[in-house]
Amino acid sequence: MIFLLIKFHIATAIALFIPGYFFVKALLKQHSKQFSIMEWLLLSFGFSLIVTDFLIILMDFLSIKITALSILGSLSIFSFTFYLLSKSKRSKGKEEVSVENTLSSFKGFERKKFALILGIIILGCIIRVFYISDGIIPQTTDLGHHTYWSKTISQNGELPDYGMPDFIIGEHIIFAVIQLLSGFSYISALSVSILFLVNVLSLLAIALCAYYLTLQFSTKKIASNSAIFALLVAGTFYATSSPQAKFIAGGVIGNLIGNLFIPFAIYLFLLAIKNKDSRVATLFYISLAGLGFTHHLSTFVFLYVFVGFFVIFLSLLALTYRFNFSKLLKDFSPYLQIFLTKWNLATLFLIIGFMIFVHMPSYLNKTAIDTAVGAPSKSTRVGLPFGAIILSVGAWKFFYGLLGAFTLIIISFKNFAKEISSRTIPFLVSTSFTLSWFFIILLMSAKPELLKVDIISSRIVSYITFPLTILSAFFVGFTFQQLFRKSSPMIAQIIFFLVMGTGMISGFADISDSVRKNDTSKERAVIQTYKASEYLNGIANESENVLKDHIYLEGDTWMKLFFMKDYTYPLSRSYLMRYDDSVKQRETCTRDMIAIPHSEIGEKCFKETGVSYIVLKKGFDTAQFDKSETFSKIYTSSNVVIYKKYNEN
Fold first, then answer.
1. Is the CB of residue 384 less than 8 Å from the CB of residue 461?
2. If phi over 0 gives left and psi between -120 and 50 gives alpha, with beta otherwise, what is residue 251?
3. What are the angstrom distances between the C-alpha of 229 and each of 289, 401, 428, 470?
4. What angle separates helix 106-132 from helix 489-514, to the nearest 10 degrees?
5. Any idea which of 47-56, 334-343, 427-436, 582-591 has the lowest mean pLDDT?
6. Theoretical Cys-Cys bridge with 127: which of 207, 239, 477, 613, CB 3.0 to 4.6 Å?
7. Whether the predicted model's global pTM rises above the 0.70 cut
8. Which residues, including other chains, have CB under 8 Å from residue 562's CB and lie 6 or more apart?
9. At 551, is the secondary structure helix, strand, or coil?
């Protein structure tokens, strides 16, 4: 086990830190020394994830079998190549860069506050570990579905053909890569550990976003305080709220990685604007490609936010310049040019070419697009009332986030009276992105018909938690700097602790409501499901189908990982409400073969499906099989029972 753990950590470093580190180091030349530790961790992780995904997709396109050796070889060649490029570029010219012109202004701040930042991150990690501790024995439905596809890659040595737009290859590659390199079993904490790492790195992305967004419309002190408060709110106060520890425990892979890449891309966009640096703009484009190949909903949400940003930005730009378009174009063109250099246009064409000729994301088809865009088609997609939205994100965070948004709007209107300067456009960019990130997702969650969004509203609302975190952190930082400056320090301190204290109570109440009791009976039941699956896999032949009960069995989704015959094997009885659909007809055999096995409908279903084995939770819908002459109990434990069907002849 110790040897496996060492291999796991080495595999994680090889796949999730080293390639991205050398890639960024080579691309940014001498500027690479100017990033803080937090930024290096985030950049290395984010681009390693993208590089690993794209290398594996390219290997599959070239018909190179995906094995531990081929993965290690490709990642080593890539990392070594960019290591040489970084060395050669640095040796050509070691130009000195003044503090004022450094690419990252976060580095000096991080040094001063390093202990505080580290303490918040450690506390956030401890809370998450306690919450997801029972995830060591994997059991959740979503994670079971995703892990099946990752194991398919590991077993077959090639990428799977999903045949459906529900899954995207970027959700599954990294788990297969680390499993192949480490040898860790999928029936372990492998997936949860990787998701945990993704979530912790997303906290760094949020802190960096809070810093760079706030920096353009306030002072460095307010920006640094906003970064710390954002880390505190997301990292500790609301540590288990969606899309954080709850999503790790639930295995909601796409949302978690998407909620890393969205602030990651925004951070790079802001950094490119702040420094007018085309190389950072290149990284921004690549981060968008990583998002596009990882999760359709996250990409969809980001596109809406980006369109909203352009609408707000162009409106504010026209008002600020008082419709003097000649001066506007003169001032704006240098910022536009950094995204339209020859190198960046080539990068865009390369990404588009990769999508067209190498691998097209499964959701980029007319059917999938029509499903997501248009008038809401179901009651679950018509939007959430504000009460439900507030309940989803936390009352404290929503209230102070809303105040932060209105404070920012007031600052924007005050800016119209000021003279245009070199900071005007970065200010408008940051203001527009912050407001769009919040208000567009709020509209998508509450009034989706206005934006023609046809997606489950409860899934969209999870994306609003991070912009609310940034806005609430900005409001606290901005307000209390003014308060400490203009009022008695004691009064300011009392009010500050009241505000942050209520935030702590609100956030920790979310933790206490969601944390699960230390009940080992469920874990024992899951293990028994796995043991029954191992037994059944050893006796069922290719022609015999299996039907399991998803309603009562614990960890039943993971049964497919023991058989690895097909994504839909074994068949599953779902929740009963899913069989009643007024819009389209649903199959009912998986229900009827358990509920009424001896009826005419039940017998017909057995013949059509070829089901020979029924797996149930002991004491739940088992009476009709115990009394049956055509079914025999062949396996039993304290939680799981297996019946075999025999022909009456």
1. yes
2. left
3. 30, 12, 23, 8
4. 40
5. 582-591
6. 239
7. yes
8. 530, 533, 534, 536, 537
9. coil
